[in-house]
Amino acid sequence: MTYVFTLKHVPQVINARRTESLDAPAILELVAPRTTSQFGRVNIVHLIEKSNLSVTLSNEQNEVLGFAGFLDQPQLEVCNPADWECWLSDMHYKVAANATPLNSLFLHHFVAKDDYTIGCASEIVRTVFNAVPELRFIFLTLRSDNNPEPALAQIFQPAERDGLGGYCHYTLYVCHRHNHAPLLHIRRACVEDHDDLTPLFKRLNNNLIETYGNYFLAEMIEAQNDDNQALVAEVEGKAVGFMSVSSHVNVGLLQDCFELSSFHGLCKPHPDDVLVEDAPSTPPASTPIVPASTPIVPASTPIVPASTPIVPAQPERKESEVSMGKNSSEAIDQGIGSTSSDPSMTTLLPSSGMKPKLSEFHMGSRSSLPGGPDVFTSTSPTGFSVSMGASSCEPDAFSIQLFCMEEQFEMRSADFLPKIFKLFPKKDFAVITVPHLVPEFPLIQQFVRVTPKRTSNVPHELYVFHRNGLLSAGFSVRPAKTDDYEQVVKLTRNINLHENLLADLRSYNSARRDEDGTEIQAFVADCVGQVVGICIMRREENIEEVRAHYNVEDFIYFNHHRRDEHAHLHHFALNPIFQHYSKHFIKEVLRQGHKSCLYYPIYPTTAPTNVSASHSLITGLNFMVPVRARRQIDYPLQELGVNAPSERVISHSPPYAINHINRKLTLEPKVTINARIVVVGASDVGISFLETLCFCPHLRFNNLTLVSKRGLPHKLFSPSQTYSSEDLARLSLRSWVNNPISTGFMSDIDRNSKHVITADGARVAYDHLVICTGQQYQIPCPTGADVHNMATNYDLTKGAANQPYDITKPIPDNVMAVNDSYDITKLSMWASNSPSIIIYGRSFEAYHITQCLLSWGIPGARVILVRPPAQNSGVSVSDDNTNGDPFNEPLVSKAVELGLQESGVRILANHVLAAWGEEGNTHGGSTITSVSFTTPTKPLSLPCMGFISLHPKRIDIRTFLALNRACLVFDGRLTIDASFKTNDPSIWAAGPITKYARRYHADGYWARHENYSSKEIGFRLAMTILPLFDPTLDGADPGDYPPTTPATTMRGESRQENPHEKLIPVYMEPKVTMGELPGGFTYLHVRKPGERAPYAAQLDSIDHGAEVVTGSPENGNYFRLHLNRFDRVETITCLVRGSHLSTSNLIRLYGTHERYLNNLVGRNKEGMLVDLFAFFRAPWSMAIYHDRFPDFRQEIRDLLSTSLGANVPSVEAKVRQLVDEDLFINNQQRETLRKYYSQTGQRKAVEGRLLSFLSYNYYHLPMFAKPGMV
Question: How close are the terminal C-alpha atoms of the chain, in Å?
């Protein structure tokens, strides 16, 4: 809690935060005449948008008390923003010798509430210095005839000049860090520091004291030697931080577990070394991955000489609690040798159980853990082979074993780094490992995270820092020169597509442009004369397409950025030891290139080579934010004619994912989450869950893993078509999600060690496990009915027709179940050679697969559709309650049946598989040649050379066995609570594999997840888990869904009961089914989530509402629109002949009131609706399909529910008042409401919002006229 005082010494509690654009009106109210005289007339919104850092101070009532905006350059009138360092030198300011773009910011605006100006100015400056640890100077430039106001005059002093220099109309003022947040004094620890440090250790973690006794710290300090040393940070004579370091590191073991090739294996280079990387651990070309922190610069790239003077660098700001990184050699031994991630050292006790003296037991030169690997002991590396029989290499690293810091000073943790490198002058690397669940604290934000090997399950994260990373004063960014070419060649020679990078650099050096005239800009990162990074970008020529297709306006106000300020990033490479300067590199590129926004696309593997090859994999991807793709309108171009959007807006270029960074984001840290989150199953729910986590802009998940039989999918086989192949390409989950080295289904879960075991024995470690495998179509198990004795369906036992095939028995080669796009591809390869194909199932997918076979040119006479009995037959194969009709609409069902008959497909109803005849083949397997079925009357045998199973659909038996062996509660399905948790607090589940626990009384079909939108379920699951990691989320919103229970809550723990945990979530998104059907039909069905009643029962319901139907299935233009009793669209059914159906548009109609649909009900009563397809292709309807139209509707609702004054109720309040008096509103009351709506000004306000919506989105909606056009 922070206080500021008024001029009368009245305290006020304040909160410092980043400024939001919504603060602009309140900031404008603080502008005083003195503000205008100092800074001129400033567009506050534009300043917030363009500033690198803007800070707002607010009180407990969220009232804005002060604001300041900071940029990395002075005002444009002062000098060229890209060259202000030269201006300082030309003006002979003494500070020019030390000021660099890395350690300097400029104050562009400051306002504060009267009586709070002095306190606000001081607090803002202190906040900025803490937020940007590298910062040393804050500059203020004012006109020479102006003086800073008193609040600023106490903080900023005129900068001293060495001589007169040139004349300038502006005066430079400077604020130094040491006056507000000075560097810490770091010294060797002594025994007397014990009294200061022990309370700190007890407050943060008491495990060490419990393990080694009350005086373990004094013993550790007393036992210091050349290999094990301890440092403290001192403030005003008191120790506020402690660090223990050791020179013993087992680099061989670290090489086994982590990708250290870019750091020379943490060994000293040797002239005879021939570095060969370990066995390839990269994924196959078909499933490429972009590891979040994998450095790509080769280890052999020369680095800055170690003898160069060191200037301390500081870590990035991260809002978190003070962290205690316990990383002793024994802790790492324990972590790598076992699966425990507990950072305590309790396992280091000897078998006798006595507390050892730490100076003897812990400070030994070798690991004290018997039988365990020696991590901090020098051994030969296994990650590299050394030629010429060279002996074991010399380790080049020391370790940080123990670290803690007072919260008040944690942002200065990096002040330790220069001192510890002086203690080990012959070592170039400092390493530290932390358990996965330990939040990333400020110290390790300076370090580079090393990517674990895909075969490693080590429960720690490894961070590395190189000595030359301290050279902040020597690190600079400048435009590339011709002389840099050879150094860039050496820097990038191991990067994929480096030839294209060099070709772009040559184009820049020769003409600064492409052959087509596109501007090219190239910048290099230079460290004391050596090139350590390269960045090449072009002007973004397709910015209209980017704006129209991606939600970049989630991060910028587009109208405040000129067209030439958008740039397209093609190449970005930075030596890994300088990776913590990546954001500064980008910030400088934007400043010197006069840009404000940067975009980097990631193309799928299926993209044309000429498109994807122009972009190399960049090392700074982690510092950018992924941008969500926008839902596009399917425009009827012929109907719109000249009123259609421009070609750039409706561009149909290959889909790609886009990443973005702008000026504001260069100084905005991300919260790094190293927790291992493993998702089992690449279902719609799993993809939606991963999408939600990956697209959190302020979070960085380093350990997301997908365990799936096919790996990350390129296309999903689902009747909902939640994710198309284009949608998956625009997500580019491969950039953020890891695949285990072996893909396969889950065969076991080891809950004790927290491992998922795949079918081939691979172990995938997890901290949080998410199971969303769903249900799959299984190979049916023949009932074995005696068809020779004329057995019928009535002779079968209950459930016999719903049994899957025994997995221990071999499956015939020509029998398959279709569950994903891979199966579809496999089916297309052998189906054409099969003279007779049987499709077994009655689901929607069975009809869709039948149409697939027909569309591949297979004659209908070779296809037989066998439908098992419906639910009410006594041999149920479906939990649906629509009598087995997947369409649940007689007209549609009849049209599809007719389409099958016209195609020549034979249909057999109420048949149950009894047996099949097998023959051996030349491949050592078997094939079926005939199948037998039981029917209600007599058995039937058919020849068969291909059997496609789409029945039964149930949980895979291998998944069930894995869950059962793990002792997870399974009650027909995996049991979860309202927060998606199983009986294991570390295991979550969602989707059709689950059911709610019986205490919720939600056992009916209506409560099962298959009746709801899979994408919404995945989103809700992610939002339930995110509060465990996101410091900005205190919990879920009970109004939207039940809050999550803490993951640490175990049985027996006391916690406050939450009433919302007794309720299951309420889902709002519609359930969608679409696909191609026999007869050449394209089908779309959108319905209310939840239980689907039979169509006849829906019509008989008193609350059914009204239906609007046009066309007929026979004519191929059937459209049924069902409105509920509140006149909202609740069901949409379309059946058209042909493939073109604007499904994305029509789905948007769900939940929309008929008044938004151009008075649909009134037009229908007047007989004006002849063709609903034509009606919804009219230009007026394009706004309904816009992706931001739901937000507009919510704005209107909020506007009508907002009171206009103390005695002026809102329109909504007036309506509620009338309804409370009388349930029905008569015509006179309606007229009174209309007059009230108009006279109070709300009508004008709604019209204004509508015009603003159309104007702001005019590039998508040019068919609407603006005021003044007509």
Answer: 58
**Would you place residue 3 in the very low, low, confident or very high pLDDT band (cuts 50, 70, 90)?**
low
Same domain flag for 138 and 166: yes
819 three-class SS: coil
Q: Which tokens belong to 946?
A: 């291909």
Domain boundary among 954, 976, 1005: 954
Question: How far is CA 489 from each of CA 60, 297, 485, 532, 538, rounded to the nearest angstrom?
Answer: 56, 11, 6, 11, 20
**CA 331 to chain centroid:** 31
DSSP, residue by residue, 489-526: HHHHTTSTTHHHHHHHHHHHHHHSB-TT--BEEEEEEE
Query: What does R_g of the chain's alpha carbons equal in angstroms?
Result: 34
Q: CA-to-CA distance for 1255 and 1264, rounded, in angstroms?
A: 9
Q: 550-594, pLDDT tens digit by residue?
A: 999 999 999 999 999 999 999 999 999 999 999 999 999 999 999
Is the same domain home to 989 and 882?
no
What pLDDT sits at residue 10? 67
For residue 829 the two structure tokens come to 């390869």
64-68-69-73 Cα dihedral, nearest 10 degrees: 180
Mark whether 890 and 985 lie in a shared domain.
no
pTM of the model: 0.89
CATH of the domain at 660: 3.40.630
Q: Where are the alpha helices (DSSP H) in 527-605?
A: 543-549, 582-592
**Is 512 domain-assigned?**
yes
Cα pseudo-dihedral 629, 631, 636, 638, rounded to 10: -10
Asked if 950 and 966 sit in the same domain, the reply is no
Domain co-membership, 725 together with 588 = no
> What's residue 883's pLDDT?
57
Q: Does the structure show a pLDDT above 70 at 305?
A: no
Residue 33 sits in the same domain as residue 163? yes
Report the pLDDT value the prediction gives residue 607, as an integer from 0 to 100. Answer: 86
pLDDT for 1060 equals 55
Amino acid at 408: Q
Give the CATH number for residue 847: 3.50.50.60
Distance CA 388, CA 273 (A): 8
Q: Contact, 717 vs 824, CB < 8 A? A: yes
Residues in CB range of 654: below 8 A, 6 or more apart: 603, 604, 607, 608, 611, 729
**929 vs 1203, more confident:** 929
> Tokens standing for 426?
């012959």
Q: Which domain holds residue 1137?
A: 1093-1178
Are residues 918 and 1015 both part of a single domain? Answer: no
Residue 642 forms part of a structural domain: yes
DSSP-derived letter for residue 441 is: -
- Percentage of the chain lying above the pLDDT 90 cut: 62
Residue 530: inside a domain, yes or no? yes
Q: Are residues 754 and 784 in the same domain?
A: no
Tokens 């002792």 belong to 967
**Structurally, how many domains does the chain consist of?**
7
